[in-house]
Every structure is written in structure tokens, then in C-alpha cells.
Amino acid sequence: MTVLIISFTNLRSRWFVLGTMLGAVCLSVGGCTRKHYRTQADCDVEAIYQEKRAEEAWNLPRLPGIQVDPRSRFFDPSPEDCPALPPPEPRLHGYTLPQLATGDPRQSVDLAADESGDLESVDDSAEPDETRGEANPETTPQPELIPAGNSPELIDPGLIDPNVQGAADQSQTGTHQPIIVPPYSEFKSVAPSSSDPTSSGKPKQVAAATPSVGNMRVADTFVQQTSAVQLAAPGATDGSRPAAELAISDDADPEQVDAPEELALPADSEAVDSDSLGQLLQNAPDADADNTPSIESDAADDERLEDSDAQPTGGLRIVPIPPEYWGRIPQTCIPRMLEFESVREEFRRSYPKATDAEIEPMLSDAPRLSLPNVMELTLINSREYQTRKEILYRVALRLTRERYDFWLRPTRRGNGTALNYTHSRFRGLTNNRLAIPTNAAVTQTLCTGGQFLASFANSVVLTFNGPQGFAADVGSELLFDFQQSLLQRDIVFESLTQAERDVIYAARDLIRYRRELFVDMAGRYYNLLLTYRAIEISSQDYFSNLRAFLQGRAEYLKAGRIPRIQVDQFEQNALRSQSSLVGDCNRLETSLDRLKLAIGLPPEMPLNISLSELEALTTSDELTVTRQLVQRTKTSLLETTAGRWSERDSVVNGATVLVDRLMDTLRVRNEVSGIDEVTDEQRAATQLESILALIESRLQADQLDAIRRRELSGDLPPEPMIRFARTVDLIDAKLAQAEAAIGLRALMRQAESAASSPSDPDAGPADPVEDKGLEQLGQQVETYNRELDQWIRQWETAIEKRQLDELESLSKRGDPLLQRVDRLDREAAGDLLPDQEGEMDELIAKTVKEIVDLVDQVAGSDVGGLDEVDIDDDEAMLTALVQRYDLMNQRGDLADARRQIKLAADDLRSIIDIRATHILRTRSDVNRAFDFTFDDSETRLSFALDTPLNRRIERNAYRTALINYNAARRALIDQEDQIKFSIRERLRQLRLRRTQYEIAVASAALAYERVVSTRLQLQLAVGNVVARDFLEAQQDFTGALNSVAREHINFILERIDLFLAMEAIRLDPNGYWEGVDDEQLELPLRPPFLEANPNPYGRLAPCLMYSDEIRSLH
């Protein structure tokens, strides 16, 4: 606007002035655009972020801006500088999950993906023999031997349903059904007795229907080696042990197995959705009745269970849960339960015709979030996180304002011009005047703390019809002013100093908040996994207790074998389990909604959690539990072998249980380590198991042979039935011995082949002649088995036709077969078994020693379990004190408080100001706006002194500053002590969690054995065991399983808290810490103090002339 002072005498100058005035007016009125100011602020703030990171030696991660992610719920698509109000109408389900860099949470569910039950993996290449119900004998692995699922149950034969398709019990890849041997110390084999004359010689099997939890599966079958004729001599012991196998019908025809008529699945439906599930459950018998099991209800079930007693035992399987009991579970709970393969197996037992394609739509189709997904969504949608970013942005904006004061800048107001037109009349004279005042000024706070001001003022007065006609009066003035305080310059710098430091504080607060946010979300995520785990355990607990109730009711109604009060106890426990299951499902829904709120998602959005992490934790827990079972079994075996080798049966039984559990430990260890091939330890364990099976069959055959000889060599001729029963038992035992010998030789041949061909461990036998010999021996065993079966059928036919006179000759027809089997047995066993009794004891001792050595070798592996908390407390505390951001801020607060002492002390002093002012004016005799002259100028110098005669307020402020400093110093000490306590407490909690985990694992192993033994004793009416004993064992086992999962997850969370307390968490751009997957407890390297804290008490603003005292503080 300075052009207004140009003389109007020149026409060109006049037009130039008018054009310039017009442009200036347009510019001043319009100004810059909104976008310009917004982007300029963003650029300034980003520059400050980069500058502060450089000042801190790049110890600060990259600081995020406040721009909202377009995938966020609160992203506003309207123009940023002119946003539109959102629609006022409320909406539901208005947000869908965006594409995430951490993975797609919408991945489909595939029930037949793999045998671990991973619902998120998809395998389209599965061959038909890998699907459920079609076992592939060539790929069937060794049995799983150790449980960690829910209660091992022994189901009475009266509850066995032999007419249901057994394929539904097999794993998804067509493998065997997992099995478990009851603890050898709890049972002793029952030798054939001499009191029952009705034996057929074949073993009678009692199935152990045991549900599974996660990947830990259990199924016990107790095989009693007894004849219907009890002919054993008093005190005789049987060398056999309870066999570990779940009998499943091999000849069951899938086409002949029908689903329950009242709940038949739609034949033409390709998928069953949740509505179909509801209809299925609602159509269940008594689904609308009282939601409690009852003795008086379900008479049809009791009849079916009673009728099953008459079924042959060749098709033994776990009795299915009656469909009506599925209908009594809330429909909202069913999809959560079906997340787990163990529950889906139970569902398939109840609905044999239900295929994977029909079960899959029953599952929740909500997106399945992993922890990285959760963190990415949280950073996108968290309102609190966005607020924290905006807080940092505001602090940085304040710094731009403070820095601007030290720039040469136009003043905020007073830069402009005006047009003042005056029309006046006085005594008939008219005067028209136009005044155009113009002002412009710049100011700056100097590095010395002084203030500089430069201003320009122009005045143009045009008189159009005055006494002298048209007249013009143009004048300008330049002002330069400098003011400096001599003693209080630090006070001038304080606003900028504090603003600079506040940005660092806010940046550290934001970074630590992000890490705390990760810890909080990880805690929510893992607690959700724990709730899922509780649902699986509660489901199996419910099924187990329900089966116990149904069995007890059947026994009570059938023959009154147990008292009514025990049935009521079973029923009460089933109701308790159902209540616990429903409560867990409800807690899961509540926790999911709270997780959505924490993420920033709407509560009504369907959401689920990926269970892959839970499966990994479950597998790790399974490995730890199996190891504990192995150690317990080893200890018990060593106690048995300590000077009591005469009890060879118990030793062999214990060694067999130990090697079975060892094999399961090796299997789970391979799963944890991701090893697919068979390891050397597994081959050694398999061979030892075969040796034990051969020894066991030899002991049993020798015992039966001794019993037969003793009873047939009596003074009186033996009864034909006794001869027949004992001969059948002995032939059957010798055939089992031959089969065990053949199997052992095959394993030995395979081991020799693997040793000769290390590159192909699975190579077949190298000697085809010996291989052919083993095959011929196997064929002879099959032939003799058929002859034995034919002889048994002839005997049964003679009994049915009452041809008693033929029994004598018929009972002797087995002698030739026995002689041939004996020769086969000697040929098959050969040098595998010794002939002398003493040598047999040596073989058993050698085998036991090899097993114990192998157990010790496997126990030394570092796979699975929780690491020892071998962390030095002092090192951990020093690491935290060096790296903690909140402690850095506390140190900065202490320096700020100390600086306030200096500022308050300056206020106590005299105020001495110097000021210099110079004014230049244009010549008054000409109308020239820029014709400045020193002839018309003015210079002013001033010196001001304000003595400290009244400093009461300042004195109080100074004393307060001293108090505040000491308070800040105590606060710093307290913060350090709190950090030390936090580290020590977290280490104590970490050690406690590990100890509690080990206790929980030991408790789970012990509770498992209690359940097995108590259930078996209750089943066999041994001692004074009652239903309450089993129920207590069942509850203890369920609680122990929950404790194992809870303590493991608590250990993980405590470890995350420890690393947060040491400021050792480093997040990726999506807010996820990759170290959460590593459960190792190695401390991060502690950096040197000055490397982590390049400015321990903060920095001062550069280029400012602080006092020496202030500089000494930083």
C-alpha cells in the first residue's frame, strides 16, 4: 500500500497507483485458501516431528500425523476444509471390515482342512482317502496315547451302540482313533478263573469314551482278559495288562447307518444354515420341555441303551449324545462350541448323516481376527488413539506459534489501509475530503530477548472543493524501535523453551501409549482365547457328565446296580456343567463386544477370533502335560522295579504305559517343532513298544500254559468245557505272541534298512527272502486264527444242539492246532525271547533301562514348556531405567522445575530496560511519500529502572518454585522406585506364573489318572468308590485343564508386561510386536545411557542467548 504516497501529478503514476490499490484490495480481502493454511500447518508440524527425532538420535519412532485412514469408521469423505454434517438418522451395520495388510480376516472355514481342526486353513488338494470316514491304512500313524482332553470315561458295555457308523470317530485325515492306557499302578490283570464254565476264550472289551479338548484326545479301552469260565487258581496273576485300544467296527456299512429319525438332516440340502440348525434342535424330542435331564424322561433312550447290552462287542464305539440334549443348549452357544473339532466329533456322533458341508454353515461366518488384525484395526478405528495423535499435533502447532515470534514477521493487526470520506457544510460552505491512512509494521523477538519493531505510516488527504479548490496533503513516517531487558531475558525465552520440550514429552507419551495399547489389546485377545478354551473344556465336561448320568440312569432303571442318590449326583453334575458352558458362552459374547468397543468397531458387527494361536498354545500345553505324565509314570515304574522283579507283570505293564506315553510326547513335540518325518526317538520308542508287547504276550502265554497243564493233569479227568476254554485261551495267547514277534522282526528289518539307506529312512527291507519269510509267517497266523474260530463255532453249535456226548472229542480237536501254533510261535520268536526264566528277567530289565534312558533323553529337549525365568533383576531394572520414556519425561519435568527457580529469581531482581526509538518523516513542503529526510526525524533513548521495593508476590512465587523443584525431585525418585518395583514385581509374577503352570500341569496329569482309575473302579464296583468320588475327580480334572490354559496365557501376558516395563517393545507400522510369538525370556541388550538418552534433561532452543545458569542445567 505504500504506492499511495506517490504524487498524483503524473497521470501514469495515478493509473499505476489505482491498479496497485485494486490488486492489493483484492488480495487483502480474499487472502489465501483454506487448503493452503491447512497444508502449511501440516508441513510445519511434520518438519518439527523430523527435527525432534533427529535431536533424540532417532530413538523416537516415526511419529504419525492426524490424517484419518480412509478405511476408518470416522473418515469423512466430504471436503476437509468444508466438511458436511453426517446424516442424523441412526444406522446399524453401516461399517464393513476393510482390506488389511496383516491378512484377510474373512478367510473361509474348512472343516476338513487338516487333522488339527484349523478352521482357517483350506486344502483343496485333499484326496478322498484323506476325508473323514475313509481311513487310509497306508497312512495311518501310530496311536495317540496321552490325553489332555476332558475326562477319560469308561463306558459300560450297556451303553455301547454297535450300530452307529464308526468312521465318524476317526480323525479328519482318516487316521486311527487316539487311545490311552490306564495307569498300570491302578489295575492288575485278572487271570482266568476256575469258577465260570461259559468262556469262549475271547477277550471282553469295555470301551472308554473319552472326549477330547483341542488337539489333546483321549479314548480308553479296558480289555479284561477273562474267560466266562473262572478257572484261575487262587492267587494266580495274569501277565496281561489292560489293552489300549478303542474298538471300532471295521465292517460297519456306512449306507446302513441312519441318523435319528426325529432329527434326520434334509437329504436335498447342500448346507445347513443357522436357521436349519435351530430347526434341527427344536425338532429334537423334548426340546421344548423342561431344560433338564431327568431319570423319568427319555424312556426310549433307556430302552435303546438297555438293548445295546445284547449287541456284540465287535462294533464298540463311544455312545453318542442323544440329539435332544443338543436342543437344550442355547442356539447362540452352538456355533461357538462347533468351533472345535472335538465338539464337532460329538455332533457327528449324534447326527451321523451330517457332513462337513452341512456342518460348516452352522459355524459363525464372522471374520476371524488374529492379533495382528486386531492391532491394525485398532490403529485404524481407535478414537482414543486418534485423540492422542491430535494432542501431539496441537502441541507441535503451539511450537510453530512460539517459533514464529522469533521470526521477522508482520504484526497480527494494523497492516492495511482505509478510505474515510467526509462531506461537511459550514455557514453555507461545502467541503468534501477523502482521507486514506495506510499502516504496515513488522516485529521480531531477538535472540537476546529484545523486541524489535519497524512500522510505516502513510497519510493521504484529498480536499476536492476547499477554499483553495483541489488540494492534496501526503505524508509518511518510519518508526524503528528496539527494547531490551537486561536481567529478565530468560523469562522471554521460557515460552519457546517449554514449547520445544513439550513436543518431545508428547511424542514420548504417544509412543508409550501405542505400546500400552498393544499390551491392552493383547490382554483382551488372549483372555478371549482363554474364554474359547473354557468353552471347549466346558463342552467336553458337559458331555462327559451327561454320559455319566445317562449310564447311571440306565444302570439304575435296568437292574438297580447303583443307588438312586448316585444317579441324582450324576444329574446334578450334568446340570452344573451345562450351566458353566452357557455362562462361558455368554462371557465370550460380552468379551467380544468389549473388544469391538476397544478397537472402535460397532458392537453389532459380527466378529470372531482366529483360533490358530489357541491351537498352538494347546499343543504346547499338551506336550507339557504328556511330559509330566511320562515323568510320573517313570517314577512309578522305578519304584516298582526297586527290588521287586518278581512282579514281572506290573513291571511290563508300567513299562508299556511309559513307552506309550513317551510316543505321544514325541508326536506332540514334532507338532510343536513342525517336524513331519519320523524321528529316531520315535523309531526307538516304537521298537521298544514292540519288544514289550512280545514280552507281555510271552508272559501271558506261559501263565495260561501253566494253568492249563495244572488243571489237565489233575487226579480227575478234566471237564470238556475246562479243556476247551483253557486250550482256546492258550492258542489265542500264542497267536498273539507270534503276531508280536512278526511285527517286531518287521520293525527291526525296517531299522536295518534305514541304517543302510540314511537318505530314505522309510525304505523297505533289503532282504526279499527274509521279507517273504515274514509274510509266510503272517499268513500262517491268519490260517490258524481261522481254524480257531471254526473250532469255536463247532463247539457253540454242539452246545446249542445239546450234543453233549460230542463235547469230549470236540474238546480234544484243539490239541493238534495247539501243537502247530506252538511250533509257529517258536519259529516266529526265535532268538527274540530267551528260554530261561532268569534270562527273561534280564531282558525285561534291559528293556526297562532302555526305555528310561530314552525318556531321559527326550526330557532334556528344550521343545515345549515354559522357559526358566533366569533374568537378573538388577540388569532388568537398569534396562528399564535407561529406556523408559515416562522416566525420561520425568527427568525433563525436573529440569523444567529447576529452570522455574531461575525465572522466579529473576523476577525478584530489579527490572532494567533500555529502549531506542528513531522516527523518520517525509518533507512537509512537498507531497512525496518516500522523500524521507533526517531534517524531519526524531531519536529517543530511554533507560528504565524498576527497583525491587515490593516483591511480596514474586517472593511467594520464588518459594513456591523451590518447593515445586523439590517435589519434582521426589517425584523423579518415586518414579524410579516405582519402575524398579514394577520390574521386580513382574519378574516375581513371571516366576510365579511359571511355577503355577508347572503345578497346573502336574495337577492335570494327576487328575487325569484319578479320573481314569476312579471311573474304572466305579465301573467295576471295586472297593467303596461311589459316584461322588468320580464327580470330584472329574471336577478337579476340568479345573486343572482350565488352570493349565489360564496359567500359560497369564505367563504370556506377564512376559509382555515385563517387556513393556523395560520399554523393550518395538512395534511394526501396524502396531504389532513380533516378539509376542517368541516366549523366550532373553533380556534385550541394554544400550549405553547417553545413547538412549542423548539429552537426559532435555535440550534448549538453539541460537538463543540463555544465561549461563540456564545453560548449565541442560
UniProtKB/TrEMBL annotation:
SUPFAM superfamilies: Outer membrane efflux proteins (OEP). Residues 112-128, 298-309 have a biased composition (Acidic residues). GO terms for molecular function: efflux transmembrane transporter activity. Residues 188-204, 753-767 have a biased composition (Low complexity). Residues 69-214, 232-256, 282-317, 752-771 are annotated as: Disordered. It comes from the Bacteria. This is Outer membrane efflux protein.
